[in-house]
């Protein structure tokens, strides 16, 4: 295809029900490193000769909370990420109006910040927290930490953790079912910024039976679906070239 952006625009214009299935590559242009990139948390733990799957697990959190909450990268200066062109375009597309569904593997809630109304967070998010003892919910600004930097519930001293899926935990069944429903009822599937290597998220795309599949990713993907368009470019740069 001589004009991939024009073709992408055409496919979006013609679609009625669009599912956007995104991974870490959607948010890298917002300043958030890919988990497994050179400056990502997974890679940093490996540099420290630590097993990321063990250190980022629920068991480790319970048994070694002081180590869990003081891991490499956790205390670096934090810069508030902002939605990039991809997040903003998808949110604006809803006002066209278009039936846009977001299924994300990210935990940053940038889609909601941009204004998207229907977002399924496969791995939870890092903006909602709860006490592991009593279940009380907390916002980021409500959390109090003890002398070991461990977030503690002021009621029962339970550990407060983010509502994210850790290693050793499963995606909630109702979340998976909702994602399956949305993909199955779409006529356009856009797979963007993901290597599709994480189970069970990678299997969700097989529920798509619609008209067209688009892949936007810097590196090639091998999937068991006919692909109508491949754009090997960053997600934000690609969407920045589109019009509403």
TrEMBL record:
GO terms for molecular function: histone deacetylase activity, NAD-dependent; NAD+ binding. It is an enzyme of class 2 (transferase). Its EC number is 2.3.1.286. Residues 1-244 form the Deacetylase sirtuin-type domain. It holds the Pfam family SIR2. It comes from the Bacteria. Keywords: NAD, Transferase. This is protein acetyllysine N-acetyltransferase. It comes from Carnobacterium iners.
């Amino acid at each position: 295809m001589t004009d991939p952006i024009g073709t992408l625009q055409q496919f979006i214009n013609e679609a009625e029900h669009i599912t956007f299935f995104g991974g870490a590559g959607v948010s890298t242009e917002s300043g958030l490193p890919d988990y497994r990139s050179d400056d990502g948390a997974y890679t940093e733990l490996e540099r420290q000769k630590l097993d990321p799957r063990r250190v980022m697990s629920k068991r480790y959190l319970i048994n070694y909370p002081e180590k869990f909450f003081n891991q490499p990268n956790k205390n670096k200066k934090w810069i508030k990420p902002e939605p990039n062109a991809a997040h903003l375009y998808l949110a604006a597309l809803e006002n066209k109006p278009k039936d846009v569904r977001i299924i994300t593997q990210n935990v940053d809630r940038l889609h909601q910040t941009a204004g998207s109304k229907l977002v399924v967070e496969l791995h939870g998010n890092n903006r909602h927290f709860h006490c592991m003892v009593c279940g009380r919910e907390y916002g980021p600004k409500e959390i109090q930490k003890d002398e070991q930097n461990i977030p503690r519930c002021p009621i029962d001293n339970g550990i407060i953790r983010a509502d994210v899926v850790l290693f050793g935990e499963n995606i909630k069944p109702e979340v998976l079912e909702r994602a399956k429903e949305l993909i199955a009822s779409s006529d356009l599937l856009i797979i963007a910024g993901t290597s599709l290597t994480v189970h069970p998220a990678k299997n969700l795309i097989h529920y798509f039976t619609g008209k067209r599949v688009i892949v936007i990713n810097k590196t090639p993907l091998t999937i068991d679906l006919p692909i109508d368009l491949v754009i090997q470019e960053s997600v934000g740069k690609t969407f920045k070239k589109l019009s509403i």
